[in-house]
Automatic annotation (TrEMBL):
SUPFAM superfamilies: OsmC-like. Coiled coil: none annotated. This is OsmC-like protein. It comes from the Bacteria.
Length: 151
């Protein structure tokens, strides 16, 4: 399936920010966006599960939201890794909580600078992390099945 054969709908229209996934096999998809990026989604080798993508989205939303604060304190070329773990409620097939951890060399900061950086990062994430806000407020969603040949 090519992107030109994607049925037009509010979620997949060719607008900026559109995302969709095309089935490539049993429980395997290629996720795409309108900027041309791709990610393999599924349950096999070389694929991200949807839950892993959710955790990556939350983790990177945190660091993207606070990148300017980290760069100001640590230098423009600072190195960082961000991870996200979760507690899953298997009986309800959902995550109960997430823990985001940003790992960076803070050895150049004294205790006061570190405390200030912690506050500024938290504030930036609180202001700008759309994924975090969405998780915190429990966004609702709907699912519909659309036949591209029906009008």
């Amino acid at each position: 399936m090519s992107t030109s054969s994607i049925p037009s709908s509010p979620a997949t229209a060719g607008t900026a920010g559109a995302v969709w996934a095309e089935r490539t096999g049993t429980r395997q998809y290629i996720g795409r966006n309108s900027a041309g990026a791709e990610v393999r989604v599924g349950m096999g080798p070389g694929e991200f599960s949807p839950g892993e993508l959710m955790k990556i989205a939350l983790a990177t939303c945190n660091t993207l939201s606070a990148d300017h604060r980290l760069a100001k304190a640590l230098g423009e070329d600072f190195e960082a890794t961000v991870g996200c773990s979760s507690v899953k409620n298997d009986a309800e097939e959902r995550y109960e909580s997430f823990q985001v951890e940003i790992v960076a060399d803070l050895s150049s900061l004294d205790a006061d600078q570190r405390k200030l950086l912690d506050q500024r990062v938290a504030s930036a994430v609180d202001r700008h992390c759309t994924v975090g806000h969405t998780v915190e407020h429990g966004a609702t969603y709907t699912t519909t099945i659309v036949d591209p040949d029906e009008d």
